[in-house]
């Protein structure tokens, strides 16, 4: 297999991929013994379809790329260590030994679908910009999205032309917020969303009376109690306390706070380091392998 690293340097690619929320692996050569292609500190970045920079080429680099992509495919994020005996495992004539630290990043920690580009939706998008979320923003109006929003990292703007198709395209475990300018459009979205049992949450903006109306319609349309109970409405209620401030920014603050609680699940950051035995072997230059 030939390897053709992209011309972009590893540090530039790392910044861009983290900004854009693309899953990737940073591979760093942390030790070397004997004759090796590169020195400790050499780095490369790997995604499922590209590589940036190089650890020196050869079979061990191909094996590093394969190990990184295996972790991405299995969603095994965090730290791991790969050991290469260049004359043994990698079959290279230089015969040295290297340890490669792999840091696998998921890109984003949650997917948020926002249906509606009104004032509250705009504020939610602004407040979410600094969070590790991928935003999927929908609106049926042709002029709904300002060009500035289209430049925001981890934000994709879509036309809400077909409700069923848009909902079907959402990633598994996405969190959905329904807040369009049209109540009938809201209702059609809620119906489509609760028919998917693999979404993390479904929220609807509006008053208690709006939800009571929707709830009655859903029952008449044959939806089960469990399906209806999946809808969180009104959204943005903190500890079941009503918010007196009804400005779009204030509502958005409570909605994003609520989402922070909903998305606060175990993540790759719980992998806080390597096993102490592995580290001892690493710093004494002793060959070691990990699973």
Automatic annotation (TrEMBL):
Lineage: Bacteria, Pseudomonadati, Pseudomonadota, Gammaproteobacteria, Oceanospirillales
Organism from which the protein derives: Vreelandella sulfidaeris
Domain XdhC Rossmann: 112-259
Protein name: Xanthine dehydrogenase accessory protein XdhC
UniProt domain XdhC- CoxI: residue ranges: 18-78
Pfam family, one: XdhC_CoxI
